[in-house]
Predict the structure.
Amino acid sequence: MSKKLNFNEVKEINLKILEQYVPIVARVHGESHPEFHEVHKVFDKINIKIKEVAMDKPDLEEEFEQLRKITNNYAVPSDVCESYETVYRLLSELDKTYHA
């Protein structure tokens, strides 16, 4: 039986990867997927809020709502790379564990 991870655990794992991937994906796919620049901005806000509160749970309701709207509930476009897909998957995991 696998242990279900909480928000702080998922945050620790996912943020490190997202901090690397988000700027690269924005640079590579931003021209053909301009919505990803908005994803980048919202992710930056989330990252700042998380770091400001350390182990407390920040208020990220608005940011996750924005991400769901921008990404059409994290639907991955058909013409993107695995890194783009990974960003959406990790953001979705963060969102789900935040609301769990």
User: Anything to note?
Assistant: The chain has one domain: 7-98.
